């Protein structure tokens, strides 16, 4: 199972209470399931508005269960930012 680093930004970082943490997950959907399990509550609500980068590439509208993660990869959790 790949181990990835999930990095939280802005409101996601505030809701998680940490800047980053490790997860074992083969897909973005699995990683986000782990995030929701570890941080129930406010972070779950923030995630609904977030966009995601996987190893620097935007996920866009792709289904999260189709986005494969590589061992040592990074998932960036990006809430909407004011001012674009």
From TrEMBL:
Q: Which Pfam families match?
A: ThiS
Output the superkingdom of the source species: Bacteria
InterPro entries associated with the record: Beta-grasp_dom_sf, MOCS2A, Mopterin_synth/thiamin_S_b, ThiS/MoaD-like
Q: Keywords assigned by UniProt?
A: Nucleotide-binding
What the record says about family reads:
Belongs to the MoaD family.
* Protein name from the UniProt record: Molybdopterin synthase sulfur carrier subunit
């Amino acid at each position: 199972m790949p181990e990835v680093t999930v990095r939280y930004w802005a409101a996601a970082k505030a809701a998680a209470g940490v800047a980053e943490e490790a997860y074992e997950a083969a897909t973005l959907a699995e990683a986000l399931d782990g995030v929701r399990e570890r941080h129930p509550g406010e972070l779950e609500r923030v995630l609904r508005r977030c966009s995601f980068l996987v190893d620097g590439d935007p996920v866009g509208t792709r289904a999260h269960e189709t986005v494969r993660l590589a061992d040592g990869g990074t998932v960036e959790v990006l809430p909407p930012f004011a001012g674009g």
